[in-house]
Structure formats: structure tokens, C-alpha cells
Amino acid sequence: MKNVLKQYAVLTFGSVVMACGIYFFKFPNNFSTGGVSALSILLAPVFPQVSAGQFMMFFNILLLAVGLLVFGKGFTFKTVYCSMLMSIFTRLFEVLIPMATPFTDQKFLELVYAILLTAAGSAILFNEGASSGGTDIVAMILKKFTSLDIGKSLLVSDFVLAAASIVVFDIETGFLSIFGLVMKAFVVDNVIDSINLSKCCIIVTDKGDKICEFIHKKLHRGATVSACRGSYTGKDKEMITTVLNRAQAVRLKLYIKEVDPTAFSIITNSSDILGKGFRSVA
Q1: What are the backbone angles phi and psi of residue 165, rounded to the nearest 5°?
Q2: Residues 145 and 22 in one domain
Q3: Which of 31, 35, 49, 148 has the least C-beta neighbours within 10 A?
Q4: How far apart are CA 164 and CA 174, in angstroms?
Q5: What is the mean pLDDT of residues 104-121?
Q6: In this structure, are 13 and 153 located in the same domain?
Q7: How many domains does the chain have?
Q8: In contact, 132 and 85? CB cutoff 8 Å
């Protein structure tokens, strides 16, 4: 139960971050960088009696209903939860904090915040095995019933929505929307990598017992020990392999310097560590 509550707290945070990026930065500037929010932004001026937030809630509910009909019990509850929460918060912001104009007159600065917040929120959800719904549901349906390249299909549809803002609004908004669409993919990948970043440490040493004891008792991590021999010196040594977070890696480096200054250490970044104590294989 504790793990479930923790996971849904993370999902709630990611959904709220996305809602902030959409409402406070995308809506006021008419940035249509793809997805349901882009479609809502484009339709709002055409039907002024309906707000962009209301359009987004309508489309998300519609797509969720289609997803439930198509996939039944296989449709993830986490996606339903995140999609509805994001729509609800966006609508609440519209009611409680009306915004007639953007925060600043610097459109590029506002685009940066729009992309950072929505991409960071998406990355948090993806990292927990969820999504914000919307066009992700369209992708799931296309994947089930067609042989289309899903990634390319969604990229084309998002590009069309971004380019349409040139016609609906103006050329500056359109170009910024297209640029934001391209940047969003890079930011999502980098945020996911940063969230999962770990340090893979390989240490060749004569003091294997002491270093392993430090890893076990002080860092509370495991390690793999292998016998090895230096090709130049011909001396037998031990090679220790372990995976740590950034703070633990710093502590280990300082300890190795103290206990075996001649040890040979390789420390590399990795964001895809699977197994006990890290990410689940499933």
C-alpha cells in the first residue's frame, strides 16, 4: 500500500506539472505543439463559447471511453487517472485563475517554460508506466489494428496541428509551435534519463574485502566480485562491479582513495538499470 500511494503521489505530481505547463504557458500563447491540447487550442477561437480547457476535457473523456471499449480491462487505470486529473486541474485553473494574456511579452521564453513543464510531466508519467492519455490512446489503437509506423504517424499528425496554428493564429505562433514540437521529444528523453541516472562502478583493486564491506555496510548496496589479472604486471587482483546513485558514488570514490590509492576505477553513467533495488524488469 505504501508503494502504491507513493506511485500515485508521483503520478499526481506529474499530471499537475503538465496541467501547469498547458494552462499557464501553452493556452495563453496559443502554442499547439501536438496532442489533445493542441487540438483544443486550435478549436477554441473557432468556437469561442467553449474554452480550450473544456475542449481538452471533452476530447480526453472521449478518447478514454474509446480506449476502454477497445481494450477493456487491459486499459491501464493509471492512464485514466492521469488523463482525468490533468483535465480537471486545467479546468480548475481556468475557473480559479483566469488568464486573459500571457505572463510576459517574451514568446520564446514562454515556449521554453511550456515545453519544460509539459515534457517533464510527461517524462514523470512515462517513467511510472503511465501516460496522459490523449493521442497516446490513438497510438495504442493504431498499434492494435494497423501495421502503421505509430511514431511517424503521430509525429505527422502533431506536425499538422502545429502548422495549422499559422493559419488559425499567425506565422510567429506557428513557427514557435513547430519548434516546440521538435524540442519536446528531446526534453522528454533527457528528463527520463536524468530521473533514472545511476553510476556503474568497476574497481580493480588489491583491497577487495575492505571495499566490498564499505559497499555493503555503509552504502547498503550489493556488488559482484571477479578474479582478474593485469596484462602488464601479471599480478592477480579483484574486480568489483556495483551500481550506485550519484551521492553513493562520490562516497565510494573518497573511500577508495583512502584505502587503496593505486586502485583502478571506471565510473560511467547509466539510466537503464534493471533488477532488485532499481527498476523492475516488467
Answers
A1: -65, -20
A2: yes
A3: 49
A4: 7
A5: 88
A6: yes
A7: 2
A8: no
Higher pLDDT, 21 or 130: 21
Using CA atoms, how far residue 46 sits from 29, 94, 167, 270, in Å, is 16, 18, 12, 47
Q: Are residues 191 and 262 in the same domain?
A: no
| Enclosing domain of residue 243 | 198-270
Q: Is the pLDDT of residue 204 over 90?
A: yes
pLDDT of residue 281: 47
Q: What percent of the chain has pLDDT over 70?
A: 88
Q: How far apart are CA 77 and CA 266, in angstroms?
A: 42
- The pLDDT tens digits of the residues spanning 166-177 come to 888 888 888 888
Is the pLDDT reported for residue 280 higher than 60?
A: no
pLDDT at 273: 65
Locate all alpha helices (DSSP H) within the chain, ordered by sequence.
2-21, 27-29, 35-43, 52-71, 77-96, 107-127, 135-145, 150-168, 171-195, 208-217, 246-259
- Cβ neighbour number for residue 234 with a 10 Å cutoff: 7
Same domain, 264 and 177: no
- Residue 27 neighbours by CB under 8 Å, 6+ apart: 37, 41, 52, 53, 99
Q: How far apart are CA 196 and CA 194, in angstroms?
A: 5
Q: Tell me how long the chain is.
A: 282
Residues 266 and 209 in one domain: yes
Contacts of 257 (CB under 8 A, 6+ apart): none
Q: Work out whether strand 236-244 and strand 198-205 pair parallel, antiparallel, or are unpaired.
A: antiparallel
Residue 239 is predicted with a pLDDT of: 94
Give the pLDDT confidence of 33-74 residue by residue, as tens digits.
877 888 888 888 888 888 888 888 888 888 888 877 877 765
